[in-house]
Amino acid sequence: MGVFKIEGGHQLKGSIKPQGAKNEALQILCAVLLTPEKITINNIPDIVDVNKLISLLKKLGVKVVRLSQGTYSFQADNLNLEYLESDEFKVDGRGLRGSIMIVGPLLARFGRGYIPKPGGDKIGRRRLDTHFEGFIKLGAKFGYSKEDQFYGVEANKLKGAYMLLEEASVTGTANIVMAAVLAEGQTTIYNAACEPYLQQLCKMLNRMGAIISGVGSNMLIIDGVDSLGGTEHTMLPDMIEIGSWIGLAAMTKSELTIKDVSWDDLGLIPNVFRKLGITVEKQGDDIHIPAHTNGYEIQNFIDGSILTISDAPWPGFTPDLLSIILVVATQARGSVLIHQKMFESRLFFVDKLIDMGAKIILCDPHRATVIGHDFKSTLKATTMTSPDIRAGVSLLIAALSAKGTSTIMNIEQIDRGYENIDERLRAIGAHIERIDV
Ligand SMILES: CC(=O)N[C@H]1[C@@H](OP(=O)(O)OP(=O)(O)OC[C@H]2O[C@@H](n3ccc(=O)[nH]c3=O)[C@H](O)[C@@H]2O)O[C@H](CO)[C@@H](O)[C@@H]1O
Ligand SMILES: C=C(OP(=O)(O)O)C(=O)O
């Protein structure tokens, strides 16, 4: 188990380049299963979840060649489908959330897809109904073993269908799209998720020969084709990492430049940080955050009432940045209500911030009111455990702004999604040390 020791209270300075997007990578890597031809992918983040998925693909028989840092080629021309029935697969599949997205491509190309209940963050119930209801609509037969928590779908040939998803599930939409591209006839997915991750996936599939229209909207129309070919794909920068660095800069009063952020794909993210009073400057395709020497002031709504920041399916504000927003608000001037609508256990980490001296009222599992300190009182260093990936980084940001030395345990959670974070933070002046215990 690893631990971070962090000496807080130091101003940081410099520039930081975001890694490739974790959640996009998980979709794109699964899509290599759709063709026997070679696919080259650039800007793959070197993070635990992605490496676990690459290892799973290798065991499934995909030929994986590392061409350079972040660039790999994949070829799924001779798969070992027996692996899907092995005990080893049950362990590997549970290791991350993204593994669920091998089901759609396997079902479409080989007529069967299996997966144990996938892992990922323990942030509340994370049901898979949307995925399997979609496959069933395409004609698949569904099976579930309660004892092993093992899911399976089988079909001779998928047939296109109209479907209105109950929720705009991100991984669910990706999974159904990857099944529908090889189905017979036309599929319409209404209430589809449309995050940049999905837009990237659809663009890549179209380059492979798929026919998908409506990309970027909540209605995708897919005309099935018989087979798909190879392509090359480059991952976007990770928008959640970008948001994390904006928060880090503000809370440590540091001047930071975040390089090559792909502004056009950031949606509401810069504006939501601006609502906390943070100056987010566009410099070409970089984000520049000046040192907030005089703090930052939360805006009210135009009628003067207290600001609420809540999550919503894209193009709404992503739930993956609410924990960061919350921690940054603890040092703002003013108050804000954070409303985490999607996940029911994602705000429990605030008890650690309260221990550090933050003024937060956890109203219920979904809502927390934050009354900012305006830097009149700094957070106190402490020892804490990271419950999930984004809470982990929020606690890390809190520790970097706190007085004294904090310890964060269970940093595997952070390593799931942030590449080489300690080294990259040290490069901009953070006092952070990784200790293997
Ligand atoms: C590997 C990956 O890509 N993980 C992301 C993906 O997870 P994942 O694809 O697992 O999440 P889903 O989009 O399926 O749903 C997440 C949660 O939100 C709820 N929900 C979803 C859609 C909706 O319209 N209303 C609603 O309430 C669901 O019931 C569920 O509890 O999307 C989540 C929501 O953006 C992100 O937090 C995760 O980082
Ligand atoms: C919740 C997240 O990840 P996962 O879906 O992989 O658990 C996340 O990236 O914030």
From TrEMBL:
Binding-site list for UDP-N-acetyl-alpha-D-glucosamine: 97, 320, 342
Keyword Cell cycle recorded: yes
Residues the record marks as active site: 121
Molecular function terms from GO: UDP-N-acetylglucosamine 1-carboxyvinyltransferase activity
Binding site for phosphoenolpyruvate: 22-23
Catalyzed reactions per annotation: phosphoenolpyruvate + UDP-N-acetyl-alpha-D-glucosamine = UDP-N-acetyl-3-O-(1-carboxyvinyl)-alpha-D-glucosamine + phosphate
Transferase listed as a keyword: yes
Predominant cellular place of this UniProt entry's protein: cytoplasm
Enzyme class: transferase
EC number: 2.5.1.7
Domain of life: Bacteria
Pathway: Cell wall biogenesis; peptidoglycan biosynthesis
Any single Gene Ontology cellular-component annotation: cytoplasm
Pfam families, A to Z: EPSP_synthase (PF00275)
Family from the record: Belongs to the EPSP synthase family. MurA subfamily.
Function, in words: Cell wall formation. Adds enolpyruvyl to UDP-N-acetylglucosamine.
HAMAP family: MurA (MF_00111)
Name this polypeptide is given: UDP-N-acetylglucosamine 1-carboxyvinyltransferase
Source organism: Seonamhaeicola sediminis
The encoding gene: murA
